[in-house]
Specification:
The protein has about 120 residues and is mostly helical. It has three helices and no strands. The relative contact order is 0.07.
Length: about 120
């Protein structure tokens, strides 16, 4: 089973909201014009606008929060991902540091001019 793609789901929700609001507005306008026009439904536009604004703002806020969460979360290294190095255990870390320091000291000694010659 594929992992859940939150951003894709929210984009589909946003598309669904736009389709739903177009359908509701169309049926609302048709119903109002059949029953007397603007006198029958004086606040149709305001109600439609408020509903749409809340739905779109909620969906976009969820999308934005998902993007921010994705940026701030640090990717954990994986065995299957050769590009990301795995963390070394503490015992190995100390040995590696010691070897690096020895190598640096040897390099520094090799680069120094010999004073006795």
């Amino acid at each position: 089973m594929k992992p859940f793609n939150r951003e894709k789901f929210l984009l589909y929700m946003l598309a669904g909201i736009f389709i739903w609001q177009a359908a509701v507005f169309t049926f609302g306008v048709i119903g109002c014009f059949q029953n007397g026009g603007k006198e029958a439904c004086p606040d149709l536009g305001d109600r439609y606008e408020n509903t749409v604004n809340v739905m779109v703002a909620t969906t976009l806020a969820l999308l934005g929060a998902g993007a921010v969460a994705g940026v701030t979360q640090q990717k954990k290294p994986s065995v299957s991902d050769p590009a990301s190095p795995l963390p070394l255990p503490p015992q190995v870390r100390g040995k590696v540091r010691g070897k690096v320091q020895e190598s640096v000291q040897a390099l520094e000694q090799a680069q120094r001019p010999d004073k006795e010659s």
